[in-house]
Amino acid sequence: MSEEAQKEDRTEQPTEKRLRDAREKGQVPRSRELANVAVLGCAVLALKATSGSVGAHSRDWMRDALRFDRALLDAPDRLLPHAAALVGKLALPLLPLLFAALAACLLAPMAMGGIRFASKSLQPDFGRLNPIKGFARVYGAESLAELVRSLLRVALIGGVGGWMVWRAFSSLLSMPQASLEAAVAGGVDLASSALLAMVGALAVLALIDVPWQHHQHKSKLKMTKQELRDEAKEAEGNPELKARVRQVQRQMSQRRMMEAVPTADVVVMNPTHYAVAMQYQPGMRAPKVVAKGVDEMALAIRALAEQHRVAVVEAPPLARALYRQSQVDQEIPVKLYAAVAQVLSYVYQLRAWVPGRGPMPAMAEFDVGADGAPDPDDGIPAR
């Protein structure tokens, strides 16, 4: 599929995840016009605020620079330090302007998309070396839009600058007749006013460019319907993968249960549909379920229990109640304490029974009531 066809298919607005991924890659809307206005505007405002001190300092500097020092002729090695000192004195009043411009460099990106350091943008992209893509960038729609903005920028700044010069033409002609102090103050005021007017002209461009850059940024990140479905599937999880994970987890759980069956004290059966294996050791508050299953799993639990000589008791009501109300590796519910205690008591009596020494212990049938307790009339003696 060609790139133009892909652009035609991208009809859906970008999701929040796509915008977040773009920000992580350093792809945020940027407006060159806003940056120019911020830097130049802050510098001009700083110049207007410090115009008095800048003018006085410039006047003093000029006097010092034009003053002739005969000692410099006798010591040529002092010329370089003297020139450096003059440059340093000239740069001192410009420090507020530099700090204001530096602050504007930070504020302009924050107004658009924030300041972000994206390490991915520093990685080499050999796709940019493609001459075909480079030709498309140079002669594409973005380059045409940048050319239009540049022409408007030049026209606005040139027009405003020409208008300011024409408006202050009479003041410029009178400056040679004025005193040095008045000429410097007037020149600084005229320059700051002209720069402020140019900032206003650039602000008009910025008001147009900022919404346009936001629109262009979202247009580049538009998605196809298939990309939306893929992202939703990724967010919710691939159904096939989730099913496979559940299958593996179920197999691992079943394997752990089967490994725990030989350690059980008793397996309660239904007799073939349900099986629950329980273990009780001194120190436990209540018996713990170590395995449970239905149908084929129930038969496998029973076979493994018989193989390791674990007692198997057929108690259908209790088996159903244990299966539905208990969890593997957890204690049995409180309401089943009495019924399970009677089953364990029967198992312990059966272990202690010796053939030929009295009748074999027997456990009468009983029902598990609605609350999980055995029916008091089932004939099983309480422990």
DSSP strand content: 5-15%
Q: Residue ranges: pLDDT <50 for 5 or more in a row? A: 370-383
Question: For the largest beta sheet, what order do the strands appear in spatially?
Answer: 3-2-1-4
String of helices and strands: HHHHHHHHHHHHHEEEHEHH
Q: What would you call the shape?
A: elongated
Structural class: mainly alpha
The average pLDDT is 75
Question: Portion of residues in helices?
Answer: 55-70%
Distance between the first and last residues' Cα: 79 Å
- How is the biggest beta sheet arranged? 4 strands, mixed
The domain count comes to: 2
DSSP strand tally:
4
Number of helices: 16
The Rg value, from CA coordinates, equals 44 Å
Report on the structure:
The protein has 383 residues and is mostly helical. The chain folds into two domains: 28-119 and 127-220, no CATH class; 252-352, name from scop, CATH 3.40.1690.10. 62% of the residues lie in helices and 5% in strands. It has helices at 3-9, 16-24, 32-49, 51-66, 71-74, 79-91, 95-112, 131-138, 141-167, 169-174, 180-220, 225-236, 239-260, 296-307, 316-325, 337-352, and strands at 266-269, 274-279, 288-294, 311-314. Strands 3-2-1-4 form a four-stranded mixed beta sheet, with helices on both faces. A hairpin with a 4-residue loop joins β1 and β2 (274-279). α3 (32-49) runs antiparallel to α7 (95-112), α3 (32-49) packs antiparallel against α11 and α4 (51-66) crosses α11 (180-220). The longest helix has 41 residues, at 180-220. The model is unreliable at 370-383 (pLDDT under 50).
